[in-house]
Structures are given as C-alpha cells and as structure tokens.
Amino acid sequence: MNYGALIEDLARRIEDEIAALDAGDHDALALATRAKLDALERVRGAVPEPAPGRDLLAQVADLNRAAAVRVNRARVRIERRLASLTRAAGGPPACAYGADGRPVTRFMR
Fold it and tell me: Which domain holds residue 49?
C-alpha cells in the first residue's frame, strides 16, 4: 500500500470512529479506535522523506480533532449523568481538584 493510500485508510478509520461515537456504540467504538491506532502506526512506519500530501494530512488531523471533541462531549455527559444519579441516591457531590491542588466541590447541572 502506498503512502497516500495509507493516509486515506487512516481517514476512513477516523470516520468510522466518529460514526461509532455518534451512534453511542461502545463495541464499535473500541474496534474503530483500535483500527485507527493500527492505521496510524502503518502511516508512521511508511513516512517518506520529505512527506507528501500535506493537505490530506491536514484533513486527517481535522478528523481526529473532531473525534476528540466528540469523546470529550461524551465524557462530560457521562460525568453529569453520574453526578445526577449520585445526588439522587443521596450521595455526596462530585469532587475535583482545583489549580491549587485542593479538593473543590462542584455541582453539575
């Protein structure tokens, strides 16, 4: 597989990961993430000097950032859901650590 095809494969794997994130399919997400990481390793192993396809690489980087944003959104939703369930069950509010390293109680809505 040539370098351009490897980059295109990586882009498809990231798109698969985004689709799994959007669908909330945890099993598909695990498989898609593993496939993305494998594709990334194949790209790293095949990087020619100098690296061609900067535009394509920029598109792949944008796709990866989009996937990261979705992961962060999902994490925040899960944190909020867990905090809500904890409060509903009579548990203490979630605890986090501030910039000074001291525990900070935060209430999530």
Answer: 3-105
